[in-house]
Amino acid sequence: MTSSASPFDPKKTIVSKKWFEDQRKFPVVDLDKVNFPPDEWTGHRVDMSSIPFGHAFNRDALKTAVKFIEAETKPESLRMHDVGGNLRKVWEEPQTKVENEIGMNYLTYPELLSKDLASKDKRSDNMEWAQEYNNVYDKHLSIPVPFVLKSFERKKEASPTDEKKVEGQVQAMKIMFKASGSAQKIAERFTKAAQEGAQIKKIVGFGLGSVKWDKLCGEEDEVKEQNAGFQRIWQHFTAFCIADALTRVYCETDKKVEIVLQDPCYTATDKKFLAKHSPVRISFVRDPKGILQVDSETLVMTAFLPFDVPMPSIIADLFHGQKGPAGFIWDKMILDEDKKLWRAADRATPRVVEMLKGYTRDDFDDHDIEWEVFDKVCRRLPYWLWAMDLFLRKP
Ligand SMILES: C[S@@+](CC[C@H](N)C(=O)[O-])C[C@H]1O[C@@H](n2cnc3c(N)ncnc32)[C@H](O)[C@@H]1O
């Protein structure tokens, strides 16, 4: 492991979000100011003052996808209704079969609503696939399907030497996490929530990432990659800490907490180490099974999902008019009821804003971290929880 000098003051013992922002001279999150180019699909603003159709993301469509993905023999193509009610192809057998997995590739609400996002200069890869499957690639016609299926190559397994390194890192992180003030605050927050009646039986984590840090896969910026890898381990320990705190409160009842994790990049090594350290039953599922497992007693956890995995919109659609999940830890979003124009990079939509009205909102901004944690886990990256919010369903 290469160690480079930390750019910050090593005499400090505690690092706050504010100190980090002052040093780096940029806010950890200021989504409105993030300059996603308006001529790209992430930054293009779309009027969502009235979402004119039913629910793009629904359980039947997701269940059809699960059935298709799990089927041993697959049809040459699969069709589904788009948001306008037209039957569209969402899968076509690839000409060459080099890939070994089939994945969900979602379209975001701005893409489902705006024809502009079908044009060659603005469209996302997923819109391109939808067009390609439906033979309109050159015509730039919008194919507003909630997702397309596409094959991809599974992440390579770790070598035995890599596994040993990963084991060492996970152990080191575990010790550091357990001793940290942030872990203590997380445990206290969820103990209080459970004592006040929050019913959380399941934690479903989306995209918490591989615990195997990516330098092992040949990334360039070694220190930054290592920090990102450590934060991913830290995110999993956060889920474990919450599960542990809830289990302690519920111990006198027959309620059992479990963890379900969905990330297409998990390898056998990830699953092995995560299962080893989880204090509760843990399972790993393929997309979209994790989404289908979310229920009203679930805490949903995501962190920095790609914009083309629009989890808040998917959940808001699935639970529209019903009791939503017990809570969420996910990226901060601007939840402005009067906002008219929305970008895929906003993650939220008016329907997400409406759903979250039934929740209390909290953040983790007061989670100061020990210098040792900062030096090992952050450095140039902010502490991940500073960019997250916590929503708990109101009783
Ligand atoms: C930018 S990384 C963030 C990883 C980690 N949370 C972190 O903070 O470093 C996005 C993660 O989302 C995962 N991902 C992509 N599509 C996903 C999906 N449909 N469901 C769950 N995870 C997904 C990726 O494999 C990757 O691990």
Automatic annotation (TrEMBL):
Start and end residues of each SRR1-like domain: 188-351
User: Which InterPro entries does UniProt cross-reference here?
Assistant: SRR1-like
Q: What is this protein called?
A: SRR1-like domain-containing protein
Identify the species of origin: Polyplosphaeria fusca
